[in-house]
Amino acid sequence: MRILITNDDGINATGLQVLHDIATDLAGPDGEVWTVAPAFEQSGVGHCISYTHPMMIARLGERRFAAEGSPADCVLAGLYDVMQHGRPDLVLSGVNRGNNSADNALYSGTLGGAMEAALQGIPAIALSQFLGPEIMQSPDMFEAARVHGPALVRNLWENGVWDDGPYRVFYNVNFPPVLAAGVKGARVTAQGYRSNSFFSVEAHHSPQGRRFLWIKGGPQHEPTAPGTDAAANLEGYISVTPMRADLTAHDVLAELEARLG
Description:
The chain is of the alpha/beta class. It contains seven helices and eleven strands. Strands 3-4-2-1-5-6-7-11-8 form a nine-stranded mixed beta sheet, sandwiched between helices. Helix 1 (14-27) runs parallel beside helix 5 (143-159) and helix 2 packs parallel to helix 3 (109-119).
């Protein structure tokens, strides 16, 4: 089995090493794990691609490459350059430092990498670690993902729904903000919505007096509806959310057609 891994926290991120261990477990002794990850952190870039400028790619070791681009760029580099003579069977993206539940999924470079793989016809899973006080005080903030990730990813690979449609399914997995012993299990969930948590901007001045705006995130522990990802995470469960890149609001098509005549 051949697996391509990437992330949005950058080639040197701890979560990428955790993901490499998860991928190695799944690939088996005769498998291959290839890494193509951003040279620098790319958090929040979503499904961005470097369409108007080239990116440098460097080989750092055996099957390990860094690219000056987004996670989606890295997947493209993996498919059409690094692994051009043998495509991967699976693409894994993560393990992200911080949750990509609810509305965070829309901004996530971690999901952007998985989405690009799905658009290219490759099965893909994005993995993220929800943070919280218990996690932040631990010497290993990825413990839950490290311990439960291998079995979860194997189960999803072997038993998940993998279609071959034009907008094929990919998966968004979020580990809860607890240590491994506190994980209660896994739940299949819908994407949630945090009604009181939005991105905004906060102004600051540099020592030279210039005014800059920093993007500011909202509260991450806001409850979401029962049966959705963040709600499950805050209850101690791993959330597994099937997604597609199709952005059509299918539920309003018939009503819109009737209104517009």
